[in-house]
Task: inverse folding
């Protein structure tokens, strides 16, 4: 494998179709698409300063790289990517890409990042930005933090653990999601989603968990949450006091107490939802 070390590269397509190449301690200055159509690359301690650095690239291993804010839309249509100990400051990174592994990566401007991607693994990743992981699938994340609205809209087949998720409208239109041992904070959580399981999570949400099919909340803490579960089918167990629930369709809710139960839709058969409150036996609404 050929090595390029401590190079300063500029101009459009500076290393177009590079193959079997190790690039160390180098800087990519102005010039779009410097590594377009590349394959079998090792990148170590490199800096990317301009747009579209890795389009249509395959089989990339990168460590301690930096994509500055101006390296926008940096990694599209690329596959088999492993990036470690790096900073991706640019927005709109990762689009229609697959087999992506990030470890110890910071994404401080992750707006519109990970759109329409597949086979994503995130370990110790921190992201800030709206519309993270829209319409992506097969996602696994551990020690993950996201701050930004509309996270995971339309995504499928997600497993998340040890996460902190601060996101209005998170997990909308999703299918097959499991979140464990995490904190989820945000209004309107989970609308229009199905097969969602939250295990040992702390949840705070205004009007959250509505219009959902097959929502499971197992040993969760539900705090400062009102108008929950409207038009949803649910299986909920918590030792918390829930502020209010509204028009659940069916299922079971086990809680310490529910401060307000709202029924204002005569089309719903409220006997289909069972309550178990405090030490009371299970009762129908």
Result:
């Amino acid at each position: 494998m050929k090595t390029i070390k401590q190079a300063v590269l500029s101009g459009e397509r500076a290393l177009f179709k590079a193959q079997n190449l190790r690039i160390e301690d180098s800087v990519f200055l102005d010039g779009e698409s410097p590594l377009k159509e590349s394959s079998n690359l090792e990148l170590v301690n490199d800096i990317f300063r301009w747009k579209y650095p890795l389009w249509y690239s395959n089989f990339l291993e990168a460590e301690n790289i930096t994509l500055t804010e101006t390296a926008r839309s940096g990694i599209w249509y690329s596959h088999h990517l492993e990036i470690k100990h790096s900073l991706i400051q640019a927005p709109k990174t990762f689009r229609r890409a697959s087999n992506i592994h990030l470890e110890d990566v910071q994404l401080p401007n992750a707006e519109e990042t990970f759109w329409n991607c597949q086979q994503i693994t995130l370990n110790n990743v921190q992201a800030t930005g709206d519309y993270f992981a829209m319409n992506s699938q097969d996602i696994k994340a551990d020690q993950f933090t996201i701050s930004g609205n509309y996270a995971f809209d339309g995504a499928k087949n997600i497993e998340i653990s040890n996460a902190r998720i601060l996101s209005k409208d998170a997990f909308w239109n999703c299918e097959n999601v499991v979140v464990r041992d995490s904190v989820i904070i945000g209004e309107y959580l989970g609308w229009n989603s199905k097969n969602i399981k939250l295990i040992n999570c702390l949840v705070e949400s205004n009007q959250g968990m509505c219009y959902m099919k097959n929502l499971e909340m197992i040993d969760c803490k539900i705090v400062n949450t009102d108008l929950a579960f409207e038009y949803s089918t649910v299986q909920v167990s918590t030792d918390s006091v829930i502020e209010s629930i509204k028009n659940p369709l069916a299922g079971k809710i086990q809680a310490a107490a529910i401060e307000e139960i709202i029924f204002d839709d005569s089309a719903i058969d409220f006997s289909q939802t069972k309550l178990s409150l405090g030490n009371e036996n299970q009762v129908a609404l």
